[in-house]
Amino acid sequence: MPVLANRPPGWFGAPPDAVWPKPSTPLANDTNPFVAFRTLLWSHHRALSAGWSDARFVDAARRLDEAVAAVDGCGFRTTPLLHQTALSAAVGQTGGIWTKDETTNVSGSHKARHLFGLALHLIIDEVPAETPLAISSCGNAALAAAVVAKAAGRPLVVNVPAWADVAILDRLDDLDADIRICERRNDEEGDPCILRFRELVSNGAVPFTVQSIEAPWTIDGGRTLGFELATELTDRQLAPTRLLIQVGGAALASSTVQALTDAVDLGGPEILPKGRPALVAVQTEGCAPLARAFNRIAAADDAMAAILEPDGQYMWPWENPRSQATGILDDTTYDWRPVVFDMLLGSTTGGGPVVSPETDVVEAHRLVEAHTDIKADATGTAGLAGLLTARRDGCIDASEEIVILLTGVERS
Asked: What three-state secondary structure class fits 345?
């Protein structure tokens, strides 16, 4: 994995010799982000290093995308950045709210971006098709993994808790996933689904997950969201001050801010000429390990040294996570280091965590449902909950222009 000076573990940066695609670059305007932004992806860099041609990579990405569409009804396409006039008025955000709608993506969330990126790496690494893939999830990540695995013709084991939603299990079964219910064992500490997942990996399964501590290349595909966002903001000549992203395991936030930073670094003054928006990581009062770690590190004498400390010093599991935003109830924020680094030591200003009370989580979901055409669940709308909280606390002004990621389709 790449290691960058003055950046924490998990911060990839762009591949060597990467150049921001110009309009004249072949396929730069392709609607498939894995084609349009391929020269910024580590999968493309590794393919060319292995002797592939650019055309061969494009062909592999298209073939896999066509297979995904055959399984899920759609392939990967640039998702829309929408100005939400009614929503802005409803919350009094006079500067305006823009939303990037990931509910229209493959399997209904951003998760499939990560897994498609991983699948490309498996192809490039020539991992045998019969090698089992493994994931620990009972929600959007599991569904995304099952869609991409089926499209790739690879077996997938999904480790789920005993309380997993029956509708999710039924869909996983339709996708031919090997579903394994994980009961807690006597005298066993930690999430039993993660423990069973790690046992499978130790026995030869490939981690096929959105947690970069388990599958580092998962960040690579997730970066396509940030590349899209940078392009959309630049094309519209927008200069939002804040980007609000809900955080569970933090792969979404980590991927997005890394990509936006790459876009500014590689695109020069033509890309986001006024700089990228500052990250506001949103968690709920019922589960906020990232915010807890951020506050402790901010008070440390040497923040970078604190970020590099092993888990347990600043990051440890949250007890009894609870919220209607169930998709961000990871008791540990797995990809916390790049996110804390970006908010605390990155080149942007005005970033930081927000911890929203459950009343704001519920209200944000209601507001999106009432004032937009986007059918997002309570997890997907949690970024707006962060805006409600930050406004009330005086951390964000009503005159600021805001971007919020809405990801996670309402399934019921």
From this structure: helix
Backbone angles phi, psi at 294, to 5 degrees: -60, -45
Q: What predicted TM-score, i.e. pTM, was given to this entire model?
A: 0.95
How many percent of the chain have pLDDT more than 90? 87
Q: Residue 91 is encoded by which pair of tokens?
A: 């919350």
Are the CB atoms for 340 and 268 separated by under 8 Å? no
CA–CA dist 333, 198 (Å, integer): 17
Dihedral sign, Cα of residue 67, residue 71, residue 73, residue 78? negative
By the 8 A CB rule, do 197 and 136 touch? yes
- What is the chain's alpha carbon radius of gyration, rounded to the nearest angstrom? 20
The mean per-residue pLDDT over the stretch 397-404 comes to 98
Backbone CA torsion sign across 40, 72, 177, 321: positive
- Structure tokens, 146: 């099952």
Q: What's the mean pLDDT in 218-223?
A: 97
Confidence of residue 3 (pLDDT cuts 50, 70, 90): low
Helix-helix angle 111-124:218-235, to 10 degrees: 120
Quick: pLDDT tens for 246-264. Answer: 999 999 999 999 999 999 9
The domain 75-110+218-406: what is its CATH number?
3.40.50.1100
H/E segment holding residue 149: helix 140-152
With a CB cutoff of 8 Å and minimum separation 6, the contacts of 405 are: 99, 100, 102, 110, 225, 243, 244, 245, 246, 252, 256, 383
Query: pLDDT band at 119, cuts 50/70/90?
Result: very high
Determine if residue 198 is left, alpha or beta; phi over 0 gives left, psi from -120 to 50 gives alpha, anything else beta: alpha
Compute CA distances 249 → 125, 166, 211, whole Å. 26, 23, 7
